[in-house]
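Ligand: zinc ion. Inputs:
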Amino acid sequence: MPELPEVETLRRALAQELEGCTLTALKIYEPRLLQNASEQELQRALVGRRLRAVRRRAKCLLFDFGEHTVILHLRMTGWPTLSPIENPRFVFAFAGNKTLYLHDTRRLATLHLVPSARADKLPPLAGLGIEPFQPSYKFEDFVTLLQTDQEIKKLLLDQRKIAGIGNIYACEALFASKIHPQRPARTLARSEARRLFVQIEEILSRAIAEQGTSVRTYRVLTGESGNFQNFLRVYDREGEPCLRCRTPIVRITQGGRGTYLCPKCQA
Ligand SMILES: [Zn+2]
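Predicted complex:
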C-alpha cells in the first residue's frame, strides 16, 4: 500500500502538472470507488472548477477545487497517472489537454467528495492522528502517544494516533532505532523514544527524496519505480543477514501483518 512517502511523491508530481488547471469533464468507471457522492454530483460540483491545490493528509490525496475537495485513498493498488491506460477507474479531463486516470487492479481505492471548509471533520480524514511533518508536532507529543500498552509497531501503524506510516516504514524505523516491534509502547525509555522519533522523520524524508518504495505495485506518476527499495535495511529481508550484526532477519506476524526484525539488534 502506498504510505506517506509514496503518496507525497505522487502529490508533488500531480501538483506540478495539474494545479491551476480547470476540470472540463469527469467520468467514473468503477462505481465502488464512490463513497458518498454519485458521478452526477461530482460533475455538478467540480466540472468548470479550477484545481486550486493538490494536498496530502496521511495516505490520502486531496484535490482542492475551491468549494469542494476530492479525497482519493489509493488503498492497495491505486495509481494515478497522466498517461492513457486500459480500464481506468476514473478519468478527469482538464483544460490544456491534460487528463488524469486512475489505475487500480484490486479496485479498493476510495473517493470522497467533501466541502473543503469541513474536510478535516468528515470521513475519511476525521479522526486521523498526528501528521509526522506537521510543524507543530514535537517530541513531547510523540512521548504522550507512547503512554499505552499497545505494541509499539501497532501504534506506529495506528492511523488515529500517527498518520501516514505503514508496514514498510514502521519496520525500518524500529530497526534503525534498535527497538523490538512487540515492546509495549510505554516501556520505551526516553532515549529510545527519542531515537524512534528522529528515525521516523529521517526515514520518511529519505524515502520521499528517493520517490518512495516500489516493492509491489507502487509507481511514480510517470510509471517508473521509486528508488527507496534499494535502501531498505530490514523489510522483506527474511533469512538475510542483518546489515549490522549478520544475524539472520526474522519475520513475525503482528495484527495480521508481517514484521521484519533482527532478533539480536532489536532484542
Ligand atoms: Zn542485527
